[in-house]
Amino acid sequence: MRPLVKYFLPIFFLCCQGKPENQPHHIYTSIASDSALYYYNLGWKQIMDDGNYGPAEVSYRKVLKHDPDFLIGKSVLGRLTLDLEERLKIFKEVEEGKDKVTGDERLVLDVYHALVEFTNAREQKSSNAASLRERVFKLAENNLRAIVHKYPKEVYMKAEYIEFLHAVHGPEIALDSLIILTSPAQKENPFLLGYSASMNAEVGNFELALQQAKRLQEVIGDSAIPKSYAVLADVYFQMDSLELAKINADRANMLDPRNLDASRLKSKIDALLKE
Which pLDDT tens digit goes with each residue over 219-259? Predict the structure, then answer.
């Protein structure tokens, strides 16, 4: 069994035309315009549900076009952009303005801002990147725990919280929390369904993992969306079924080369197949 391959932490959240569970923007109504929130929510859906990172970056640039002072949206763009100079600039701008954000919004902003700081440190190969990672992930766990218990309909907040539980405590605790914290409708959320499949594969529940991955294909119902292929690639990779993993990773990568889970897993699979 191969370890779970996850690279983009948290990774991200939502569709403002979906079910009530998929509408967290009531947290932000006091600090962002309606148009900015529309693209903010669309960007989360594109990242989390579809695995479309490239289109999501476009959405977050539209967020800032409509509301350049929406610092949470700016921090999410900082997590998405591959341009180090832009990311450093975003970090500085948010650092200068973050004291204007308070309450629950500040809990979220502090997490996203810290993640931008960690991404910058990692890319710059800073000597404190490892210790910063530990501090940032604990901050994310604590702040997002408060948010998901206060706002139980925030499905994508729950998704990121589960990701950080997994990163800090491992798959068993993360799976337990996913089961306890989510409603039946939220368990069918594409991101949570796919992440549950990957974690079940990590702990050796391969039959359940494949069932969930195939259920994800049914839920998405669109062969042009990369998410289900990325999840199938991950599950097959952990099962040591490298040929099947490659087929699905290649498909996900073709649909969106910016999908970091798929592209980096594809590189790893290709390297193993050459051995």
Answer: 999 999 999 999 999 999 999 999 999 999 999 999 998 88
Give yes or no for a contact between 162 and 194, defined as CB atoms under 8 angstroms apart. Answer: no
Take residue 222 and report the two structure tokens written for it.
Answer: 């669109």
Helices (H), the chain: 34-44, 53-66, 71-80, 84-97, 103-123, 129-150, 155-169, 171-181, 184-187, 190-202, 206-220, 227-238, 242-255, 260-274
**Average pLDDT over the chain, rounded to whole?**
88
Computed over its alpha carbons, how large is the radius of gyration of the chain? 18
The DSSP call for residue 32 is S
Tell me the per-residue pLDDT of 81-100, one tens digit each, with 9 for 90 and over.
Answer: 999 999 999 999 999 999 99
Check if the beta carbon of residue 19 is closer than 8 Å to that of residue 185.
yes
| Regions of the chain with pLDDT less than 50 | 3-25
Structure tokens at 49: 């549900």
Could you tell me the two tokens for 259? 């999908």
- Compute CA 160 distance to the chain's CA centroid, rounded to the nearest angstrom: 6
12 alpha-carbon distance from chain centroid? 4
